[in-house]
């Protein structure tokens, strides 16, 4: 019989129990034992849930208090020297320090996990790097499940992915050159898991969906030749794309099983079957249930590749699984009592996807699930709520001229400088200000009907005015209204657009304890009325300083939503872009002369294979330009991007033609600016000089040092000064202190700039 398997389960809990407990621990409200107990309860609950759903192969070590890559870093003893770890076990407090930083040590870099909105902590490597087994987390959690009567398949980040995604901190070091040093620790860990009773181990190697270089190919061969001698059976899990040119090498490795993603790369199945149909007994795990989206699987379609695999390999060699870890989906649809019955029938969250996997593994025993699946698919395709004729006609009418500003940047720049009259090194923030407990409580009371609309509006106006006055006192040059009315930078807009639906508890982890509740795009997108104009114009009425209008861009709204899968993503993005274009026009008409259209997810959406980049970048850039190009020369368009590598897509970043781009650079010590300098990026840049994701107040000298680095690669007259992201997660005390230092650093640079021009 085929077996039902899972690669990973959401760790946060259906009600974000892990987030709440972890933040309580950071605040000193609970102790470490209480926090660990919450983790233990969640793990047990999730293992039992999977078993009850009919999953036979259940993962362990997919749980994390922060991030699975960070856990692997701790297990291998790769603690950067600045955290003053003296060897031995890496405890949970050290793990948190590495992720969040301390008063004396900057946090490790954070970036996107392939093309998802999940962020991982980037390992750091040095030329004299040593590895040692420094955490037995994987072994302990396997034993924990075993004590509950559940035999699991432990999950580890594979060595090639771990090294490939890390960064060398010494010039000239290739992290893959450390393969021979790290493998003995992997061997030791696998040996301990085998001794504890693990017969199979899942090694996640999503890097195999990328274009691999020769060094990665060599590391792959070396790694699995070595690890195959550990006594446990090894399954390599690939996902987010197809193996393509790596298939032959992967199929030739001495491994016992291979997982492939047939949702993102369904066309790879024939080649995979050819490669594994060698008379052996290696297992093939088929990822046929979408682990990254919330749409119900049409089981009658998903069964086709399963039958083909069984016909070639035999049922006993085939496993059925989600395409990837279910980390990227909400936990349980059952709690969504606010969704209407029709829409709810189209959806499946992590718990429901487990049942889909089990049904596909044993279709004869699940005929009713197949019938319900077909009925839901037919209901969805025929529903009139999906299609809007007016949106379709407008989308088809877009021409190339709609994507162009009326004049080049060099001309617009002079007009904007005359209109705005800003000093050199102008200071601003990215948009949001602290979402305090008072703000969250007021929002919750309003949603529950305990705070009237007029009272809530008065509260938001008071918070907005307070933020404006604080910015004025600090001496910022370009202000923002603070976004106190917004729950999330995507959800807020989706709530005001046609074609979007929202959940009550559809939370997914973005990084650490940061959870987001992505909207669900189920139909054609349109903007019935202005979304942000009232708040931007109110804030502008409070000050003589220029106020930025704050919008989320079409690509980011797309990427950070659960997107309909019944039409091309590019078409949905164009619909969103037209809605944002209307908002930009209304902001400009109301007197807002700086408009920021955030696109932090632009790089995130890039296909994993370079051969596929051009098509995506063409439509993504066009959608941004469609949203931003209908304004006068004097109106300055900003955009913001964070936690992504941009160096390899600089022509597309320039093609956005934003007047000002702000980017994250503080964690990478201005490393990202090298690409902007090497490309000779023509427009203005605001390199983030304050890492807002760490609870550390950088000094004025620290910030000035980063600005001096920036001005050594970017002309000083094109530099803006800002944090690297929004400030909603920070407190007011650290925000005031850090922004005071930021303004002081900018003034220092103005003095130096003025002296250099005399």
Your description of this structure?
The chain is α/β, with parallel strands linked by helices and 758 residues long. The chain has 27 helices and 21 strands. It has an eight-stranded parallel beta sheet. Helix 23 links the parallel strand 18 and strand 19.
Integer-rounded radius of gyration: 26 Å
What would you call the structural class? alpha/beta
- Low-confidence sequence ranges: none
Q: Indicate the overall shape.
A: globular
The percentage of residues in β strands lies in: 5-15%
Compute the separation of the termini in Å. 82 Å
State the helical fraction. Answer: 40-55%
pLDDT average, as an integer? 95
The number of distinct β-strands equals: 21
Please summarize what this structure is:
With 758 residues, this protein is of the alpha/beta class. Helix content is 42%, strand content 12%. An eight-stranded parallel beta sheet has the order 1-12-11-10-9-8-6-2. The chain has a five-stranded parallel beta sheet with strand order 17-18-19-20-21. A two-stranded antiparallel sheet has the order 3-4.
Structural features:
single chain; 758 residues; alpha/beta; 8-stranded parallel β-sheet; 5-stranded parallel β-sheet; 27 helices
Helix-strand layout with pairing:
Layout: E1 3-4, H1 17-26, H2 32-52, E2 58-60, H3 68-75, H4 92-100, E3 110-112, E4 119-121, E5 124-125, H5 137-147, E6 152-157, H6 159-164, E7 167-168, H7 179-196, E8 200-204, H8 214-227, E9 233-237, H9 247-251, E10 257-261, H10 269-276, E11 283-289, H11 299-313, E12 318-322, H12 341-345, H13 350-361, H14 367-382, H15 389-396, H16 409-420, H17 437-447, H18 453-474, H19 491-494, E13 498-501, E14 508-511, E15 514-516, E16 520-526, H20 533-541, E17 548-552, H21 554-559, H22 569-589, E18 594-598, H23 613-628, E19 636-641, H24 650-655, E20 660-663, H25 673-679, E21 684-687, H26 700-713, H27 732-756
Parallel strand pairs: 1-12, 2-6, 5-7, 6-8, 8-9, 9-10, 10-11, 11-12, 17-18, 18-19, 19-20, 20-21
Antiparallel strand pairs: 3-4, 13-16, 14-15
Helix pairs in contact: 1-2, 5-7, 7-8, 17-18, 22-23, 26-27
